[in-house]
Write a structure and sequence with these properties.
The structure is a homodimer. By secondary structure, chain A is an alpha+beta fold. Chain A has a single domain, classed as Gcn5-related N-acetyltransferase (GNAT) (Aminopeptidase). Chain A is about 30% helix and about 30% strand. Chain A is built from four helices and seven strands. A seven-stranded mixed β-sheet of chain A has the order 1-2-3-4-5-7-6, sandwiched between helices. In chain A, helix 3 links the parallel strand 4 and strand 5. The longest helix of chain A is centred in the first third of the chain and has 17 residues. Chain A is globular, with a radius of gyration of 16 Å.
């Protein structure tokens, strides 16, 4: 989990925490504003966010937001992959368009990986689209140590493949001492 | 959707229908009796079955049972794959161990495919394990026209790969006339 772009330690004015009901509108606004998601996908994001807000740490979906100046500017959502032992999905990552390119997505991903390890996870799955608009997204995952594990043609729609990224997580070094 | 093993038309004493609350115990009993599923997987099957019983045709999960002599002896469960246009998952197929090898699984699968086409689907995804105990299951899907679209090592557990099968569905012939 090294990064050459991120200074060690996030800037003081940014933090990652669980979202509260007051973050809901901001998150949904930037999920839509990214322009990456169809209406039906935004609807799924809303459902997932609402379920994680309603059920909290005991629920299936675990959400975290990156907050700057009191406002949520990034969102990540993870959960254990059903019927697996130790595999987790990162279901959603989104960063407000006016805050992209500043390492927020990478910070959220590393935070999520640490949380998955804390919950006993050993492997992370991220599914994304093979469409050209997602080229930067896929490069982002590759840079964070994810590798393409599968590609299923026509999955999301005709001509729109699903690309599955996976990463094996190592337990924290001090746990093996 | 041809089959060399199945006579055209199922035997009169077998039918496929939506399950009612009275089928629940029989379905869960044979899901467990197959010996294919861990306790946590049986729990997921129970959740999915209960949701399809509670929400019926308007819900996400659509269940169908094969019934012989008034008793459910096979179960199939499908639903639209979230965030896709026209892709459906067949989430569960199970046949009572004492009725296997008689074409019930194939009949349920063809029924599910027809239902998916009826609902506007164009592609079916079935995910299963790469473990040797699933060899007959994977041969079963291949025989029904599914092809291996992806294989993700260590997905279900260390050493237990996920194998993803897909099948493109053609609309019924008379719809294109």
């Amino acid at each position: 989990m090294s990064s050459s772009k991120q200074p060690p330690g996030a800037p003081l004015h940014r933090r990652i925490r669980q979202p509260g009901p007051g973050d809901r509108d901001a998150v949904l606004a930037f999920v839509e504003a990214t322009g990456f998601f169809r209406d039906d996908e935004v609807a799924v994001a809303r459902e997932v966010l609402d379920e994680s807000l309603a059920k909290g740490p005991g629920g299936h979906y675990q959400s975290y937001v990156a907050v700057e100046g009191g406002t949520a500017v990034g969102w990540i959502c993870l959960g254990p992959t059903p019927c697996t032992l130790g595999t987790f999905d990162i279901y959603w990552i989104a960063v407000s368009p006016d805050r992209q390119g500043r390492g927020i997505g990478a910070e959220l991903t590393r935070f999520a990986e640490a949380e998955i390890i804390r919950r006993g996870g050993r492997m992370v799955i991220i599914e994304t689209s093979g469409r050209p608009i997602y080229d930067p997204t896929r490069r982002f995952y590759t840079k964070l140590g994810y590798r393409e594990a599968a590609r299923i043609a026509d999955f999301y729609a005709p001509g729109d493949a699903k690309v599955v990224y996976s990463k094996h997580l190592a337990p924290p070094a001090d746990a093996s001492r």
